Amino acid sequence: MMFGYSDAWWVLLLYPAVLWVLFGPFAMASLGAWCASAPGIRPRLWSVLVPLGPVVTSAVVMVFPLSRWERPRQVDGSLGTPQHVYDFLGYLGVYVGAITLLPWLLGYGVTRLVRFLRSRRQT
Questions:
Q1: How far apart are CA 77 and CA 83, in angstroms?
Q2: Which residues make Cβ contacts (< 8 Å) with residue 119, sequence separation at least 6?
Q3: How far apart are CA 86 and CA 101, in angstroms?
Q4: Rg from Cα positions in the chain
Q5: pLDDT in tens, 18-76
Q6: Quick one: DSSP state of residue 7?
Q7: Any residues with CB less than 8 A from the CB of 38 and at least 6 apart, and which?
Q8: Is 6 helix (H, G, I), strand (E, B) or coil?
């Protein structure tokens, strides 16, 4: 039993997602720098595999239960957009874009810029 409930064990699955919010940007920035400085498929593969667990875990929580995706009826009888669509787009923007993708791009871009400037200075 956890916190007085016998079915609250699934909360343990969200620990990687919570830790990703804290440490994910640093990990992705270092992976982006590694991709910019090392050739080959190995750094790129790790850049996909490292965030896969936390991002998929949090995405499952955002998608399920599927009943939240039902389209409400408007006053005129047409089907409207489910409110959960906007929540999911916000999740994609913040969790996937700002926490995972943006630090990788920053690490990659800064490393490439530094390498370019160093090579120009040596010439």
A1: 17
A2: none
A3: 20
A4: 20
A5: 999 999 999 999 999 999 999 899 999 999 999 999 999 999 888 887 777 787 777 78
A6: T
A7: none
A8: coil
Residues, the chain: 123
Q: How confident is the model at residue 86 (pLDDT cuts 50, 70, 90)?
A: confident
Distance from C-alpha of 51 to C-alpha of 53, rounded to nearest angstrom? 6
* Integer CA distances (angstroms), 61 to 13, 23, 44, in order: 10, 20, 27
The token duo for 87 is 């929540």
Query: What DSSP string describes 12-52?
Result: GGGHHHHHHHHHHHHHHHHHHHHHHHS-SSHHHHHHHHHHH
- The first and second tokens of residue 18, run together, are 């919570």
3 CB contacts (<8 Å, ≥6 apart)? none
DSSP class per residue in 44-106: HHHHHHHHHHHHHHHHHHHH-SGGGGPPPBPTTS-B---HHHHHHHHHIIIIIIIIIIHHHHH
Tokens 């599927």 -> residue:
66
